[in-house]
Write a sequence for this structure.
């Protein structure tokens, strides 16, 4: 029964994060129309936060029922998402200032690859520090 409860709380946490991200998307759409922010930046500001919100929702709702390795991975995921998100946002702003047009797909893929590489690096260091194997 405990396993079912843990899985249920994990799913609920991810859904809470997704709903919060959706609400942020609605606010961004309304705000971006009024502020006339460039499209390539708005797309990254919106879509780049999806994984962060889902990771944070998962951690906040299910941190009491998941094991230590999952808890560490959630914290590392949140940190790496924040670092990668802001690094890619700075890159996108510089690209805009230099009049470099980046397609929406390239912006999203590049940002997520940046976040993923940072996640892999931070995860291996955190798990090694705790003495936990990185094998799945």
């Amino acid at each position: 029964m405990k396993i079912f409860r843990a899985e249920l709380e994990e799913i609920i946490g991810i859904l809470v994060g997704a709903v919060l991200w959706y609400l942020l998307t609605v606010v961004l759409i309304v705000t971006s129309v009024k502020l006339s922010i460039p499209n390539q930046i708005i797309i990254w500001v919106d879509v780049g936060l999806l994984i962060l919100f889902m990771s944070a929702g998962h951690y906040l709702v299910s941190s009491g029922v998941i094991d230590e390795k999952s808890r560490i991975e959630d914290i590392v995921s949140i940190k790496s998402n924040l670092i990668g998100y802001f690094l890619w946002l700075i890159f996108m702003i510089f690209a805009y200032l230099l009049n470099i047009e980046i397609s929406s797909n390239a912006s999203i893929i590049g940002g997520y690859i940046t976040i993923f590489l940072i996640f892999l690096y931070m995860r291996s260091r955190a798990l090694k520090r705790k003495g936990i194997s990185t094998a799945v």
In short: Residues 48 and 112 are 7 Å apart (CA to CA). Residues 2-130 form one domain. The chain is about 85% helix and 0% strand.
